[in-house]
Structures are given as C-alpha cells and as structure tokens.
Amino acid sequence: MTNIGIIGMGRMGITHYSIINSHQDVTITAVVDTSSLVLSLVKKYIAGIHTYSDYNDLFDNESLDAVIICTPPVLHYPIALKAAEKGIHVFCEKPFTTKKDLANELANIFDHKRLVNQVGYVNRFNDIFQSVKEYIQKGVIGEVIQFKSEMYSRTITKSEEGHTWRDSRENGGGAVFEVASHAIDLVNYLVGKPDKVTGSSMIQIYSKNVEDAVNATFLYKKGLTGTINVNWSDESYRKPTNKIEIFGSKGKILADQHGFKVFLKKELPEYQLREGWNTRYITDVFKPVPFYVRGNEFTSQLYHFIDCINDEQKTNLCSFRSATNTLEVIDAIFNDFEQNGKF
Fold it and tell me: Which residues of the chain have pLDDT under 70?
C-alpha cells in the first residue's frame, strides 16, 4: 500500500481526496488544513485518519510514501522541499512554485533523489487533448504552422479589494498563474515550448493588484507562431474552458475538453477521417476510469502518479521538469509586458 497525506483540504484537496481514496493500492493516513472546522468534520466523518494544522507536524509524525499538495501556491515550495528531505513522492497542484529558479531547484532535487514528482496540469490527461497530440505527432494535419490557445472562466466577477491570495501574484494569484498556466502548458505539451514571447498585454477588470486577462504571442525558431488569449472574468462561461486551434499544412484542428473537429484537405482512411470536416466527441475517445469526479482526466492524473511510484521505469507525463518549462514561459510573459507592454 502507498501511504498518502493530503496537505490542504479546500476544493482541490477534497476532490483529490475522493479520487485517490478510490485507489485499491492507496491508504490516506492523514490530512493537513489550517481550518479547525475542516479538521473537525474530517475527524467526525472519517474514522482512523490523523489531522494536523501544521504540515511540519505531518512530516514529523507520519510514515508517508507520498503527499498531495493543494495549498495556495506560495506554500508549495517549502512543503515540497520538506517532502524531498524526507524521501517522499509529491503530487502538487499548479503552479508548483511561482518562481522559475525555485521550480528548477525542486526539479533537480527530486530527479537526484529519484522521487516521483508531478504537477496538476490536468489537460495532459484529457482524452481529447491526448488524441490531438497523437494526430499532430502522426502528421495528420501536416506541419504545424500556427495555433491559438485560449482559456476562459468566471473566477473573478466582482471587484477585488486585495484581501485574498488570488489578488497577490506573490501568492500565486492572478489570471496568468491561475488560468493562463493551463493554456501555456497545453501549448508546451502539444507543440513545444516557444523560443520567444512578444506582444504581451495584461488587463485589470475587477482585480486590484493582478491581471484578469492576458494575451501574448509565441514565436519559434522553426517558423511556427501562436497566441494565447485568457480571461478569468468572463461570465459567459459557466465552467473553466480550454480551447485550442491548430493550423497545419494539411489541415486544421479545433478542440476543447469535450470534443474536437478536424478539417483535412485529403481523406485519411487509416484514421477514418474524410476530406473536409470530421468531428470526435469525448465519448468517442475516452478511456474509462474506476472513479469519476469532474472529468476522467482528474482520476487519470492521480492514478498515473501512483503508477509512477509503483513502476520506477515509467516516465511521468507531467513532471516538475516539464512544469518548470511552463513557469519559464510565464516569466517571459511578465518580463515582456514590463519591458514592452506598458505605455
């Protein structure tokens, strides 16, 4: 059995608890949260689980194989570092730090210690986006020429007074860390990390101290170009939505979490794709999971984490190293905006 502790029992912590608790090879031994109410409810309804208000007490008193970190991002680095010192595998919600240098440091430490490390960029485990990646790799739409990656949500829909962690970039707040990181990581996953970031813009709609919308252009030495367009104050979206449009020399793909359309100049019988438009829905490509919460991808990513612990030869699909690439792009957006985006 893999003994796991969960640090942070907010929305994502509870989601991850319910999923990982369904795994037959996992035992959740303890949870950490600063809310006395949350801990009292855990004690009341979950027999035999240990509760802590300080993550240091968890590491000092529990015999753990792995932890799932779901705290505000500012706490991710010290918690992950403590886990590494104890020889404990880590699954961490994104962004796993807010500083690229700290991210690179953690990636080096975990690689050196041969500890499993994973970040919650859940799009990499979505069956639609995995199918899109397969089509790109197999040349279905030819050479990729241009793309557009978008994400929209209604996270912030009223004026913020700067009293929460979401209104502090140092704490991991703002549309870039909270939302755009998913759109950026999806680009890195599907077409690769850009060589240059330019034309970055950031807009405040409701927030006092951070951006609510961001746009940027990605450039590649091989000639590929793309853009990201992100807004976490868009009330027209009921749930967070990722979209990506990829234009290639032989066709085009339009995709979101629920389905994708492929336009081809010529039919490809081997893929059952005709000339013109073809549509695939999540029900056409999804891989069943043992326990469903919010989407198959949320279960797939945590089960993948356990698989990597149990099989040392298995390569993690979303490691600290790959997440560091995403942070480097984020850093480039911030720098480009500071140097060129202000009047």
Answer: 162
